[in-house]
Amino acid sequence: MAEERMAVVAEMEDTQQGKFLTFPIGKKDYAIAIRYVTEIIGIQNITDLPDMPVYIKGVINLRGKVIPVIDVRLRFGKEERAYDERTCIVVVNISGMSVGLIVDSVREVLDIQEGMIDPPPSIRKGNESRYIQGLGKVNEEVKIVLDVNKLLFEDELDLISETVSSADISI
User: Fold this and answer.
1) DSSP state of 139
2) pLDDT tens across the length of the chain (171 residues)
3) Where are the alpha helices (DSSP H) in the chain?
4) Measured distance CA(130)–CA(112) in Å, rounded
C-alpha cells in the first residue's frame, strides 16, 4: 500500500515537472513552479499582524486554517497598488508552511522545460533579484522564474509562525 502511494506521488511530481504558474507584477511576467502551488483564491479580508514588515499584509482564514499573506509587489519594492477583482492570492508551500502570495492577477500555466531556463544575470540589482531562480524563455517572451523558497528568509518565516501561533488572532 505504501509503495502504491509513493508511486502516485512520484507520478504527480512527474506530471508537474516543467509546469509554471505565470502572473504579472507591473509590466514584468513572473513564474513559479506549479508543484509549490496549493490553490488560487480571490482577495479576501486580511487581518493585520503587529510588528511585521510592510510586505507581510497579515493573515487570512482559509477553511479554518490561518495563513499569512505577503504582497509580492511590495516584497519586490514596487509601489503599492489597490486590490481589484483580478487580484489573487496564490497559496504556496514554503518550507512546509502555507503562505499566500498576493499578485496582480494570474495568467496561465505554462510548460517551461529545464533547458529553456537560463540562470539569472550575474549582475543583480533591485530587491527582487535574490528571489530569481532563472529566466524562462517561452516563444518570444521571457518569464522571470522565482524561487518560492527564497521569498521569505528563515527568520521571517519563524517570526510569522511565532506571531500566528502566540497571538490571539480572531479572523
Assistant:
1) T
2) 545 544 444 455 566 788 999 999 988 999 999 999 999 999 999 998 888 889 999 999 999 888 999 999 998 889 999 999 999 999 998 878 899 999 999 999 999 988 899 988 776 555 556 788 899 998 888 999 998 888 777 677 777 777 666 655 554
3) 2-16, 72-75, 154-166
4) 21
Amino acid occupying residue 114 = E
Radius of gyration of the chain (CA): 17
Q: In what order do the strands lie in the sheet with 117-118?
A: 109-111, 19-25, 28-33, 141-146, 132-138, 117-118
- C-alpha–C-alpha distance, residues 11 and 112, integer Å: 18
Q: How far apart are CA 139 and CA 155, in angstroms?
A: 38
